[in-house]
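Blinded run. Sample ID left blank on purpose so nobody reads anything into the name before looking at the predicted structure. Input follows.
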Amino acid sequence: MSDPERRRFVLAGGLILNFGFGLTANLVAFQATPLRSLALSTDNWLSPTLVVNALAFCIIVGGWLVAVGQESAASLGFRRSNLGIGIGICAATWIAMQAIATIGQVASGLPLSAIAPGFPGAMPVLLGQLAGNALYEETFYRGYLIRALTREVGGRNWAAVFLAAALFGVMHIPNYWVRGMSLGFLVPATLAGILFGFLYLRTRNLWLCIGLHSLLNVPATLWESPMPAYLAPTVVVFLCLGLGSRLRPRAE
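Blinded prediction complete.
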């Protein structure tokens, strides 16, 4: 098997495994009593989102892309050289979100002791994103798929971003169906895929994508914010798009 044939074989297999995972996770795994019991017994620190996506990461990323596809951590975007800036920007974003929420709390005349009821429970959910959902999705769709599709579309990485984003949106159909949501929600999911696709192309910082993706899904603010919780992470994404190559990793 030639290298191009092997790469296409790995790409096709990865897509099949990914969509199989999406169906199984939403129709079976997330509904399973043992996983729900595990979440209850650990105060949701071992949530179905964390467990199922971590398993997908091990099987699809580790077992297929790395073991079979011969990908490396670096080729998938996990570079130590840009870990610090990724963590720094995401931490600063979360602090900015707390500041906005604090101003809103004070302006509303509410005591700062009145922490949002959902805050304690949001922390394990945020962990489920950082080490589960966002970790898997950003690695597969941004770290791997964009680069794999770029080879298939003659090096046009912008086209690969749109293709990967479309697949990212379609992958959410089982989730929306199970939750009784309109398929119209595919539009924001696809747009998010485009936004994070170009963010990764501009910065080559997968850590940054994982962190901002997590904060968009689970803001985890101490108090109720007077502005939409997704506003600060979205603004930061656009700022990072503007900075672009300045946020790229140094050569290792």
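Unblinding after everyone has recorded impressions. Residues 3-247 form one domain.
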